[in-house]
């Protein structure tokens, strides 16, 4: 910087010795422009050199290597624009040409400033935010303000650039007044951003609290959003007052202004009320969905939620929007009576023309709300048993055990047998051999059940010990034992098959035959008395050498009818 200052002083000294001329004036302008550009770059370089420690070193090096030359150009152009407004140059080159060159120089300086802000937004953000750890661990309001300013510093800077351009092209080059207004607007913007950041930080702290009702959480979010709106409204009002306008002033002067102000106020209140109504309605829908699922001991079904929740939310949202729009039009002075009458006629026509469709939709809505069906449930509907593959507001798509897909409308459903809820029951009826003791059979069943519950493939599906319910009935002389497991939903058939397989294997190991039908055959003489040679299946041959299945009754001649029927007495 010292050589530049010495060169400028030498130029000024020589200019004092030389008589006034165009060359002398040009030399002074060039020296002034160069010195101002270098001064700006040196001041910025000196300022950022303070932040060379820690994590800021990389950002400082980027600014030193790539940012000083654009700063020199910006400072030089600003100085040139200021010099062209001097009386000496206007007398020398003319007022119009001097004004044109000044506008071009100021415009180019503003454009370069905006480009510099956008190119070096991130390094400057790091200079502001990256502080020592002892300061960064502090979570107070000051840290939040620094964080907000570091992330949004370019916004007020670009606002200043925009104000300068506005002053150049609108106010005829009155840069001083426009720049002062831009600085005030930028300060208001920074203040608004800080307030918005503090509100957001406080809202984040509140949102982390547990055991808070959904209504309260959403109402607090509404309050914070309203606070943001009020903060930005205050910024807009104060900024407009700085530039000679006002939002509050609308509606205070003239009949038309009063009507516009009242309409805007009514529309604003309508929007707030519609917003509150939507919050309460949407929260009620979510709470109803979750509470109905919890009351049944289930998690929230995603298919059900994805099917019915968007539809209900869209219907309620559209209703609120339509009502708010009608109220807004009424605030603007529009006669909404024909609109309401037309909507009623259209709704009546749709209701009469699509009764079946409306019935399907209404029935489907109630089925989905009650959570009677869900995708992947195994159900029986109207005699068709299978897995639910899809649900819409009107139909259910069911694939049965043969792979056939059945599309059933909700209005045609008479009853729903859902086998996928809470738990399943594996009910088994086992025939016991007639010659096996019942206590031994019960012991065998319990041992088989315990072994099955230790099977790694089945133990997670069996939710209870074997429940022995006793002898269900007698069939062909064999007792039928009835027992059951409580299983996971839809796993009762797998558990039953696994139990039967393991029971069969154990009976084969112990050489126990399954209970088969038992038939007793007796032989009677002609007088009705029972013969001594009666037998049962499974015994040895009788004295006549006949198998038990060939046993019959003896005739008077002492012969036996192998068919087991008495001959005709007359033969």
From TrEMBL:
UniProt biased composition (Basic and acidic residues): 538-549
Keywords, alphabetical: Cell membrane, Membrane, Transmembrane, Transmembrane helix
Subcellular location: Cell membrane
Membrane topology term: Multi-pass membrane protein
GO cellular component: plasma membrane
Residue intervals passing through the bilayer: 30-48, 68-85, 97-118, 145-170, 182-201, 222-243, 263-290, 311-333, 339-358
GO molecular function: mechanosensitive monoatomic ion channel activity
Domain Mechanosensitive ion channel transmembrane helices 2/3: 315-355
Residue ranges constituting the Mechanosensitive ion channel MscS domain according to the UniProt record: 356-421
Pfam families in alphabetical order: MS_channel_1st, MS_channel_2nd
Gene3D superfamilies: 1.10.287.1260, 2.30.30.60, 3.30.70.100
Region described as Disordered: spans on this chain: 523-571
Entry's family note: Belongs to the MscS (TC 1.A.23) family.
PANTHER family: MODERATE CONDUCTANCE MECHANOSENSITIVE CHANNEL YBIO (PTHR30460:SF0)
Name of the molecule in the record: Moderate conductance mechanosensitive channel YbiO
Organism annotation: Halomonas elongata
Gene: ybiO_1
